[in-house]
Structure formats: C-alpha cells, structure tokens
Amino acid sequence: MRSHRRLRRPRWHRHHGAGRARQEAPGVKPRPVQSDDDGEPTDWPGFKEVSDYLTRQLASRRLAPRTCLTYGRSLKGFALWMRSNGGWDGDWSRLTARNLRDFVIERQQTHQRTSVHNQVSALRAFLADLRERGGITSTPSAGLVLPKLPRALPKFLTEPQAEALLEATSLEERTPQAEACDQAVLELLYGGGFRVSELCGINGGDLDLSTGLVRLMGKGSKERVVPVGETALAAVRAYLALRGQPARGEPLLLAPRGGPMYPRAVQLMLKHKLAAAGLPADLTPHKLRHACATHLLANGADLRLVQEQLGHASLSTTQIYTHLTVAKLRDVHRKAHPRA
C-alpha cells in the first residue's frame, strides 16, 4: 500500500505570494503554498538540482517568490515529461538539445503559447546556471528559441466605467470598516496603478499621508516610491479612522477576517463591486492597473513618468498603452471628422 506520508516541501516551494518578504511573528511558521501539483513535491527526477537553484535565486532575490514557484512547476513538468519519454533518471548531464526540441514541439501542440514561453524561459535559466556551476559541460538549451508572444492590447475600464465602479455600493452587507477598506483598495489600484501583490505588501510607514508618496516592493524585489492621488489618500484616511493607524511593519490593509490583505480577497471584493456597478464580471484587479496607465496617457501624462509609476523595467512595456490611446483617437476621428 502506498504511504501517504507527506514529504517536506522545499524552502522555495513554501513561499507564498510575491513582493516584500514579510516578517513573521516569533514562533509562527511561514504559510505553505497551496499547490495544485499532483504527487509528492519532491518525488520527481532532477529535483535536487532544481531545488538548490531556486533556493539560491530566492535567497539572492534574483527571482521573486512567485516566479520561483512558477519556475519550479515548469521544471518539474519537463522532468516528468523526460521520465515518461524514455525513463530519464534525473541526470541533467545526459540532456540533449533534441530532448528540449521534442519537448517544445509537443508542448506547442497542447499548451498555450504563453505557457510554452514560460517553460522555455525556466529551462534556459536553470540550465545556464547549472553549467556555470559545473553540473553540466554544455548548454543544450543554447539554440532553443523562445516562442514569440502576441502583443495583445490589454483590456481596461473606460473612464465612465471606472467612475461607476468607484461609486458603487456593495450589494452584500458589509461593516463600515470593510466598506471603507474596499474603497481604499479600489482607489489605490486605479489611482496608483499598483499590482495587487504590491498593494497587499504595503505596511504601516510605507504610505506617507502628508506627502502622498508610497513605497512599493515590485517585481524582483525592486523598490520604488510613487505618488498617490488625493482621492485615494482621502479613502485611506477614512479607512484608517475606523481601523486605526498600523504600526511600522504591520499591514496597512486588513482582509475581511482580520489578517493581512491578500490577492484572492481583493479579487472577490472586486467581483461583488462589479456586480453592484453592473459591469462585466471578467474584469480583474489588474485591469484597474491598465485603466490607470491608459487614462494617464490619454490625459497627457509623459510616457516615462507612467513607466516609473507602473514600475516597468522596459519602456516598451509601457508603450503598449499608447496604442490604446491612439486607437481611441482614431475611433473619435472616424466618427467626428467630416472627411474621415
């Protein structure tokens, strides 16, 4: 009979979320990651080298915790594929370029292009590190080409839709503090263009209500200080009047049950708010970030400043929002100009 004893999850597998690493209270163990992986987490070939690699990346902050978890799943998927296609025993030195090509070809037939792109990225980074450390003598992924990703224009809320969302009252019964927290969350996401993980990582002392500046920890543990609008600041003040001022290091926003705010709680809250506002249910918190960037550019904001506000490493990532404003201008031109 198969034993049901759980093996200990590796350190990189136990981290949850992204952004700033939280200071745990004495005696409190880190919250385990809820994984949808099947089987025991360490019961696959090549695990040790992958675990060592991801643990180093996490310790050096080269990769964010969420990225480490994604890489781990991608590398595990490849290792299991290798085992099922030839009985691979986990010896990375036996890996060939043909193995990788066959894997990518098969994945392209069964997976989304974005998923294949992420898996190839994880393999290339891991194998390059393994060679640098002497685990392999050549890099079989050297000629592996990343699948090109389509640059689809992001969906976002229009300005009237954003106003309707921010003015909506929840259909469900909420306490005054919970309602004030909901409003602060929405105003910060739309007014600041924050990622949800950045929002949930704001602690007492990070937001200066007098200057309107907030310190965020973005992707790759990159810190930035950006402004917050007066409307969002007013919403935060109203919330803190009910919640109380958090101490430095304590979370600014609290989830419905009193713990630190977390992404899923934000998603559920937004779902209820969208229903109350009569807006499409498929709009996600990240769409508020898109809306912030698009509306800033549409109203004359400098592209470089929007890049800094959003925390984009590359200007080309921010430039995609200019396509949205150009598309809007083209649509208005066609409808309004007599010779369009």
How would you sum up this structure, described in words?
The protein is globular and about 60 Å long. The protein is mainly alpha-helical and 340 residues long. The longest helix has 22 residues, at 315-336. The chain is 52% helix and 4% strand. Strands 1-2-3 form a three-stranded antiparallel beta sheet, with no helix packed on it. The protein has two domains: 11-132, no CATH class; 159-336, Intergrase catalytic core (hpI Integrase, Chain A, Orthogonal Bundle).
CATH topology of the largest domain: hpI Integrase, Chain A
Q: What is the averaged pLDDT score?
A: 81
The global form is: globular
Spatial strand arrangement across the major sheet: 1-2-3
Summed up, the helix count is 13
Number of strands: 3
Order of helices and strands: HHHHHHHHEEEHHHHH
Tell me the name of the CATH homologous superfamily of the largest domain.
Answer: Intergrase catalytic core
Architecture per CATH nomenclature, i.e. the level-2 architecture of the largest domain: Orthogonal Bundle
Strand content: under 5%
> In whole angstroms, how far apart are the ends?
75 Å
Report low-confidence residues grouped into runs of 5 or more: 1-8, 15-40
By helix and strand content, what is the structural category? mainly alpha
